[in-house]
Amino acid sequence: MKRRVVITGVGVISPVGNNASAFWESLLEGKSGIDKITAFDASEYPTQIAGEVKDFHPEEFMDKKEVRRTDRFVQFAMAASKMALENAKLEISPEIAERVGVYIGSGIGGLATWEEQHSTLVEKGPRRVSPFFIPMMIGNMASGLVSIEFGAKGPTSSAITACATGTNAIGDAFRLIQLGQADVMITGGAEATIRPMAMAGFCSMKAMSTRNDEPQKASRPFDRDRDGFVMGEGAGVIVLEELEHALQRGATIIAEVIGYGMSADAHHITAPPEDGEGAARCMSAALRDAGIEPTEVGYINAHGTSTDIGDKAETRAIKTVFGEHAYHLAVSSTKSMTGHLLGATGGIEAIATAFALRDQILPPTINLENPDPDCDLDYVPNKARKAEVNVGISNTFGFGGHNASIVLKRYEA
């Protein structure tokens, strides 16, 4: 028998709020966190806008010495993890430590550290490169340091599947609890890539919006006038817990995780197939795993990046999986407000989906002013909407053809 798995705590660092409540309130208000880049001088870049995390002070969550020895993505992960554990009211005592694991992914890892230390190497020579360079840069260090900080001695790993990372991390952590290898998992994604190299690389791909004069209108999933995605940064971390473990300690349950699916496009390094068949297989696998019919799904938090091919492919995939029911469910992209957090996006969007089920209100897709004729579903345009929804899906699809979906259900005792 598969064990039931529930969400008992959440933590968020995002362009629209540095805690879960502020994040959710901003989404429901349709507030955009996208603006001109302040992290560096982007005046020579075709894209000069991003969803930056604002007013983040890592020393509020970590020792000052550790702040100096960690990359920004790890600082985000540590902050979100601490908030998630506090929200779950869970203290990792020695008695349960071996049954608590960590599974936090990052698509790119310590890019800021890499840039800074490479400059040091070129300008000052190899002897001046920091001894902390490697542990600061490697992508698994978010999981590693969260494990060390909170004494979690159970299964600990990390996912690296580009933009599917956060969802793969949550799905894999879900499996570990289902199969009895852990009772609690701290899981999600963290990313901090609003840096010169990442921006230059994505600009060279012509993948990002150049709507620099209207930053808050630049991310416009499913809109006819979209011209690319907008990069964001942050972390979304959730506490997953085996149901009986949560009930025995009187935890407040936010939502239940009931299914997980993943697939490969086996098509192209950056582009999905136009018919979205890989994404369709992924969602179908998640529904089979959950043991539910497509008609039971009421909401999809879409990958919805605001790219021409991506939005169309996901729309076609939804139609393939849900048939006529595709026109009777709601789909929205919260990336219209947060931008695309790459490896962290699955974390914050799982939280948005869980909150939508808990509160029975759906976050909007803002900036949807002129719908693309090929994107003809209900994308909850521009304003949040009250709705009776029992089951939701969170989709994330990444470079390399990685697809991941999780199915969440409103918790019922």
From TrEMBL:
Q: What does the UniProt record say this protein does?
A: Involved in the type II fatty acid elongation cycle. Catalyzes the elongation of a wide range of acyl-ACP by the addition of two carbons from malonyl-ACP to an acyl acceptor. Can efficiently catalyze the conversion of palmitoleoyl-ACP (cis-hexadec-9-enoyl-ACP) to cis-vaccenoyl-ACP (cis-octadec-11-enoyl-ACP), an essential step in the thermal regulation of fatty acid composition.
Q: What keywords does the record list, in alphabetical order?
A: Acyltransferase, Fatty acid biosynthesis, Fatty acid metabolism, Lipid biosynthesis, Lipid metabolism, Transferase
- Any idea which residues are catalytic in this one? 163
Q: What is this protein called?
A: 3-oxoacyl-[acyl-carrier-protein] synthase 2
Which Gene Ontology BP annotations are present?
fatty acid biosynthetic process
Q: Which reaction does it catalyse?
A: (9Z)-hexadecenoyl-[ACP] + malonyl-[ACP] + H(+) = 3-oxo-(11Z)-octadecenoyl-[ACP] + holo-[ACP] + CO2; a fatty acyl-[ACP] + malonyl-[ACP] + H(+) = a 3-oxoacyl-[ACP] + holo-[ACP] + CO2
Q: Which InterPro entries match?
A: 3-oxoacyl-ACP_synth-2, Beta-ketoacyl_synthase, Ketoacyl_synth_AS, Ketoacyl_synth_C, Ketoacyl_synth_N, PKS_Beta-ketoAc_synthase_dom, Thiolase-like
- Which EC number(s) are documented for this chain? 2.3.1.179
Pathway(s): Lipid metabolism; fatty acid biosynthesis
Give the Gene Ontology MF terms in alphabetical order. Answer: 3-oxoacyl-[acyl-carrier-protein] synthase activity
The entry assigns this protein to a family as follows: Belongs to the thiolase-like superfamily. Beta-ketoacyl-ACP synthases family.
